[in-house]
Amino acid sequence: MVGTGVTDELVAFRFGYLLLPSSQPVPVPGWHRIPVGRGLLVVHPELGHGSATVAERSVHLLGDPVDLDLATADATTAALEAVRRWHLGGDDAVVRYLAYLGGRWTAVLADGDRTTVVPDCAGTQGTYWQDTPEGTVVGSHVRLVAEVTGAPEDTDMADRLRAAKADGIRGVVYWPGLRTAAVGVLPLLPNHLLRCEPSAAAAPERFYPFVDTALTHDPEVAYARFVDLFTRHVALLCRGRTVSISLTGGCDSGAALAAARVWLREDSLMWTGVDLDRPHAPHRKDAAAARARADAVGARHVVVDLSQQDRSDGYVAAYERTWGPARHFGGFAAAARLQLPRHHVELQSMVAEVGTGFDRRPAGPMDLDAVAAFYADEPLRSDPAVRATLAEMVALMQLEPGSTGELAWQDVVYWELRAGRWSVTRIQENDMAHRVLLPFNQRGLLEALMGPRTPRPDKGAVRRYVAEALPGG
Fold first, then answer.
1. Peptide bond into 209 cis (omega under 30)
2. Whole-structure pTM over 0.90, yes or no?
């Protein structure tokens, strides 16, 4: 076993956090406790955090924020800049500053008794919430919030999703709309913040696109901006860390390798997951392409055998406590715990598809049918419970005609539905093996990828960067 001294108890909800009313019990012993207004911020001991205060206003940044303008990946420095902008420019100024931070983080802003929670670009650290008589409980994992509030499992939707998988539905299956694995626990979508006050129900509020959000349409100018932001972002993610890369033959992970290769250490690893008990031809081909790429830059490549997993009682219990029916694919984390160093930081290329037109179907205006088609194929697309919660989500999104500005509504819906509800689960599951950071999780570089007007959105800019920056292309 390759690892550090993280106990099984601390593997549960690893890299997580809770924001509690002061009267609520804390279900996670050993986590750091930080008073925030009338409440309490409870932070997993492995999750970085930085805080800064001016007058009655304080900013708490949980995780690994990256400020490209200040060229820093230090959470305290970013918190100081955030509270400075808040003091000088008010709420809009601090939210706009936070919106363009890279890295992976959650921000908690406290102003007297009012608390505001702001997620990172794609909401990749998880933000879930539920109102209680004592106040609003906010946390990184559905089941962590449910442990505090006593929310029961949503067995109805879990059964519907399980049946769809058993029937062989195409594509990934994940929790739809605003439903989660616990009844009454709600997700905070990307591009939204959550305002919490002692005497009122919490209120999610859209903050992006900003009214003046403008995209760069000239392909050459947009490409140059993407390369600049992407390479600086990756450099800061790598600073002071031993990074390893989840590598395939695709262009997104190839771009991560191209940007990170000058920052790799002698013990950095490139890895590809393959079930060696059932090695499908595409997976073998992907692993071979990844190995060739690693060889081209002089890096070590390994295959993570997904059939060899940590099945110890302690880990299985921690995984079940964390995910339960919210699980998606825990096999990689269980395999990586046995086969990869746990102190490495994984660079993972999810979120790229937000900016590269992964899926702009269907054409035409946004309505419930269009969003349901975005979510899944039949039978889930027409399932009454699925459509009901997607309708709730559409109402919350408030995407009236023209409200997305220069962004296509399809890109915004993908960002908030697919990335905000599915990707975050995959990313957080991998956290149980090692910390995951995301080269594409920065708003400015996604805007640069979205900007050029092409007949169909594609990965042209990312492919070009790989061809130009990675030996062998």
1. yes
2. yes
Query: Bigger pLDDT: 159 or 358?
Result: 159
Distance CA 122, CA 457 (A): 19
- How far, in Å, are 52, 176, 271, 318 from residue 39 at the CA level? 17, 31, 42, 27
Look at strands 49-54 and 57-66 and give their pairing: antiparallel
Per-residue pLDDT, averaged over 2-24, amounts to 77
The answer to whether 328 touches 422, Cβ cutoff 8 Å, is yes
Cα 31–202–159 angle (5° rounding)?
Answer: 75
- By residue count, the chain amounts to 473
- Domains, the chain, in order of start with CATH, read 8-206 (3.60.20.10), 209-307+344-365+401-473 (3.40.50.620)
* Structure tokens given for 90: 């008010």
Nearest partner of 190 among 4, 392, 418, judged by Cα:
418
CA 254 to chain centre: 20
**Burial class of residue 278, CB neighbours in 10 A (0-12, 13-18, 19+):** exposed
Which ranges of 356-459 would DSSP assign to H, the alpha helix? 368-375, 384-397, 409-413, 424-431, 443-450
For tokens 């992970």, the residue is: 253
SS3 300: strand
Among the listed residues 114, 187, 210, the one whose alpha carbon sits nearest the alpha carbon of residue 423 = 187
Q: What is the pLDDT of residues 312-336, one digit of tens each?
A: 999 999 999 999 988 888 889 999 9
| Predicted pLDDT of residue 441 | 98
- Contact of 287 with 274, CB cutoff 8 Å: yes
